[in-house]
Each structure stands twice: as C-alpha cells, then as structure tokens.
Amino acid sequence: MGTLEYVMWHILGYAAIPFIILAGFIAVAAVCIGILSVSKDKQID
Q1: Could you please report the per-residue DSSP string of 1-45?
Q2: Which of 6, 21, 22, 39 is the most exposed place for a label (fewest CB within 10 A)?
Q3: Which long-range contacts (CB under 8 A, 24 or more apart) does 38-41 make?
C-alpha cells in the first residue's frame, strides 16, 4: 500500500467516525420516539 493510499484511508476512516456516532444517536432517538408514541395514553380527558 502506497503512502498516499494509506493517508487517504486514514482520512476517510477518521471522517466516518462522527457520521457513525451521529447516525447511531439518530437511530436510537427514532426508536425511542417510536416506542413512546406507541405506548402513550390514547385518551385525553
């Protein structure tokens, strides 16, 4: 593996870390909102 290829893979790898963390946070938030919206009380008195 050449030096340029090595550097490019490291840049792509480190650039992907925030995306992976944010995508996981959004997925967990969406699942929690879905669970809460299904389990909430349907009647409003």
Answers
A1: --HHHHHHHHHHHHHHHHHHHHHHHHHHHHHHHHHHHHHS-----
A2: 39
A3: none
Structure tokens at 24: 């996981």
- Name the band, by pLDDT with cuts 50, 70 and 90, for residue 42: low
Q: Which residue in the block uniquely carries the two structure tokens 């840049």? A: 11
The confidence score (pLDDT) of residue 38 equals 85
Measured CA to CA, the distance from residue 40 to residue 23 in angstroms comes to: 26
pLDDT greater than 60 at residue 8: yes
Lookup result for tokens 């090595």:
6
Phi and psi torsions of 43, nearest 5°: -95, 135
